Amino acid sequence: MEVEHAIVIDRPLDAVWAIFDDPDLLLEWQSALVAYAQIEGEPGQDGSVSKQTIERSGREVELTVTVLDRREPEFMKLHYEGLQLPFEISNTFTAVDQNTTEWHAVIDVRLNLMQKALGPVLKGPLAGLAEQNGEDFKRFAESR
After folding, report:
1. DSSP 3-state of 141
2. Domain count, the chain
3. Helix (H/G/I), strand (E/B), else coil: 88
4. CATH code at position 99
């Protein structure tokens, strides 16, 4: 199952990437994120692993996040474990013009045959999470 979200940010591509790629800024722009710790590797680089704690439905959930593919300043694919279903997020950044960037996020959740019935139930919350992260990031990036 895939969920997509795109948002246009009124900042140049290099500025958007610099903010997105800085783990020290994650807690400032992700409203659901309450803790971040680098576990192995250099932050944001292929193969690096971090622990991220998010608040979800009034409780804290710890996620293990692995960088699968990084192509600065256009693309980063991340793998998340810790919720009921592991998922991946592909983040693509495209310059619209010199001062504007589009962020396109694709959340990919692999469902087995029994889990496919949950697809319609999961799609709404995942879309909401993608939209919230997009809005949070846009607000933060445009305020810098």
Report:
1. helix
2. 1
3. strand
4. 3.30.530.20
Q: Which residue has the tokens 């396109």?
A: 104
Q: Tell me phi and psi for residue 15, to 5 degrees.
A: -70, -40
Quickly state the pLDDT bin for 100 (edges 50, 70, 90): very high
What separation in angstroms does the CA of 104 have from each of 21, 33, 41, 53?
15, 20, 26, 23
Across the chain, which distance is largest between two alpha carbons, in Å?
A: 47
Residue type, 87: F
SS3 at position 12 = coil
CA 94 to chain centre: 16
What secondary structure letter does DSSP report for 65? E
Domain that holds residue 26: 2-30+69-142
Pull the structure tokens for residue 7.
Answer: 């948002």
Query: Can you give the pTM of this predicted structure?
Result: 0.91
Query: Over the stretch 14-61, which tens digit does the pLDDT of each residue have?
Result: 999 999 999 999 999 999 999 999 999 999 999 999 999 999 888 999
Spatial neighbors of 105 by CB under 8 A, at least 6 apart, are: 4, 5, 6, 89, 90, 91, 92, 130, 133, 134
